[in-house]
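Appendix B: complex inputs.
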Amino acid sequence: MFDLDRWDEIFETIRKNKLRTFLTGLSVASGIFILVILLGIGEGMRNGIAREFEQDASNLMLVYPGMTSKEYKGLNPGRRIQFKNEDYDQILRLYGDKLDKSASLYQQWGQVLTYGKESGSYQVYGSFPSYQVLENNTLTTGRFINISDLDNSEKNMVIGQRIKLDLFKDEDPIGKYVQVSGVNFKIVGVYTDPGGEREESRAIIPITTAQKAFGGGNDIARMYLTLKPEDNFDKSVAASTQFTAELDQFLKERHTVAPDDNSAIYVNNSLENAKRFFTLMDMIKLFFWGVGVCTIIAGVVGVSNIMLIIVKERTREIGVRKALGAQPLSIIGMVLHESIFVTAIAGFLGLIFSLALLEFVGPMIETQYIYNPTVNFTVAINTVFILVIAGALAGFFPAWRAARIKPIVALRDE
Amino acid sequence: MINITNLHKSYKMGANSLHVLKGINFDVAEGELVSIMGSSGSGKSTLLNILGMLDEADEGSYMLDGVPIKGLSEKQAAKYRNKFLGFIFQSFNLISYKSALDNVALPLYYQGLARGERMDRAMSYLEKVGLAKWSGHLPNELSGGQKQRVAIARALASDPKVLLADEPTGALDTKTSYEVMDLIQKINDEGRTILVVTHENDIAQMTKRIVNLKDGLIIEDSPVSQVRALDHV
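Resulting structure:
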């Protein structure tokens, strides 16, 4: 390895075959380049998706009813399930210690809100104070509904930014009254939502008020639940999956739904969705690894091929060397050394070039699904290891072949 | 120096085998200059390859300077070749991308000599063959005769017991051939044992002994009155 003469030999042969060496190196360098870029993009996609999920409370569970599809205990299929306040209260009683935040929701579609001459049709939600956190709403002005609003069934209202712009234009809406089907509600706050305009076209009032004002009795449309956070993502997913199953079973029993009827009660677990996305991402990353490694293998086969040709070309020279006293090991060393040298140098160049590209161009990529593509140090080190092994592999078979050439055969080779 | 008794060699050519050497008995003393003659197919190259440890006999014994040459590993053979033998080929077999000096130094590299000493020694051998001025040139910048002289310097570099020359003048014109033979004679005058395979009678006459091979057997082995090559240059 540190034999100066050996290096001399290698540089001599490389100098003599610049183009061939260049092309060989190119195949390895591009292999590494593609691998690193693919890994970078894979990481970028993972980051991008992670960022998408950061927007909502990602451990949010949404519980809403549907219609039965199976006959059960003498009840016909096609029965619509209606959640009541009691369902929500019972869930809080049973699972309160596991829950972090929760809210139930009473929903009115297409209610006309009127302020002065302006009016528009919007959704009106009756809910709890914690709705704000669960839906990730941010107040721009005023306050959200609070627990005393609920206790006293106050006719207070928080509106989305869209409604504020539609009805109030530039006016400050706080303290003003909006009429909804003959009832006046006082505006106490305005919110924005990262979900955009559709989610900002809602008016939030206390659920107690809503059920009275719109004759809802004690009906609720759906429930929002989050679990207390666990130490890590996988634990959270496990806990959440288990809880989802428990909740599903509990509600099915309560509403006399067949245990295998999946259209009557929905428990939508966004953490599971996130998990699914992350699993998908891991698959994509694995696929990228596969493609990258295959590219390197193609490069290595290329090097091996070239080395075989080199050995073939140098058969006579190898014969002469053997006649002059070269031992098989020194022939193996000569060929192996050259191939490792070429792959290592080419590979490092590819590595450096691709890392530089990721470093300088990566932060400029601003699409929704790729964010901050990087390759971590361990991966880079692994790649280097792969390279050296690959170089050795690429050189070994040709070298072995070269060492086995009989000098007499080699000398006869024209 | 060389003792060969009852040497047999056959090559497998598909189903049938070709018996090339059919029992060669042959001794060479130190300081001899022997030519091996014979028509093509007589087995002279095979004999030389066996002598050069490039090939192995099927049967019979071969002693080189008192060392039995039999069943050597590749590593051992390489070591012995380096230590005992110098090769001179018809087609020179210089390494094309190495300078004359580097070519001569190659056997010394395989002996494990340090670079400086290697170069000094190689240079002295180049001087000996009269090519010191050409030491930095690549083989394709040299004439045929010069190439063969570089090859002779290379064969001498490891200070071998025996020089084996396979048609050393086969690729050269008459004048150059004689110059090369003159060099070979001078080296022999210094006491080195040399075997020359040739099919040219005038070249054979310049050695001290002619061994004639036919169909794998020695049919004639007689000393000759040596013709000095210098007289014909």
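Chain B touches chain A through 27 residues (CB under 8 Å).
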